[in-house]
Amino acid sequence: MNFNNKKYCIYGTGGFGREVLACLTDLLSSTGNNTKDNAVFMVADQFYDQPSVMNVPVIKESEFTADKYKVIIAVGDPHARKNIVEHLPKNTEYTTLIHPSAVVSQWVEIGEGSVITAGVIITCNINIGRHAHLNLHSTVGHDCNIGDYLTTAPGTNISGNCTLGDCVYFGTNSSVRQGARICDSVTVGMGAVVVKDINEPGTYIGNPLKKLEKK
């Protein structure tokens, strides 16, 4: 982690935002620091309704200045996360959090603003883009190339040699066969099994996997 004079700013006070706070707390505790003095939450002005969450101050987005904070976008939806990044100031600094219990080899590249939570395993020769979220006990196998704004819910298993586009979301306990290619803007439902390439954006569910058609 990059410790400097800036405080950590967690965008979002929802469930994942609070889980990110727990991750940050574990990281800071190893340095003798605490989240109360070194972190804030941030929300869009229209959602501001309380001055603190879990004893950590909450600021409005209109109060944010890039010279005071380094940001983690703790919003699960990949497209929402992308939109937030695009409208924050261009000089915003983003920080990457990797929980102490995560296993990440030295042969892994992870883009800025990403969050790697407890129990995650990322093996070798893997590139992961910016603002990725890998939730509890997800795994990524060797030689994967992953775009920006990935989200894995807990227990996702991505096998080796997979190629994933931007804004891909995996539901809890979903899995991906080795060598599969998935295009941008794909949602894979809870427990779904990807055994072949996905070339069209959309939501896919089940085993065998099928596209969920809009009604």
Automatic annotation (TrEMBL):
Q: Which domain of life is it from?
A: Bacteria
Matching entries from Pfam families are given as: PglD_N
Q: Which residues form the PglD N-terminal domain?
A: 9-88
Per its UniProt record, what PANTHER family does this chain match?
Answer: ACETYLTRANSFERASE (PTHR43300), UDP-N-ACETYLBACILLOSAMINE N-ACETYLTRANSFERASE (PTHR43300:SF7)
Task: Give the record's family classification.
Answer: Belongs to the transferase hexapeptide repeat family.
What's the protein name? Acetyltransferase
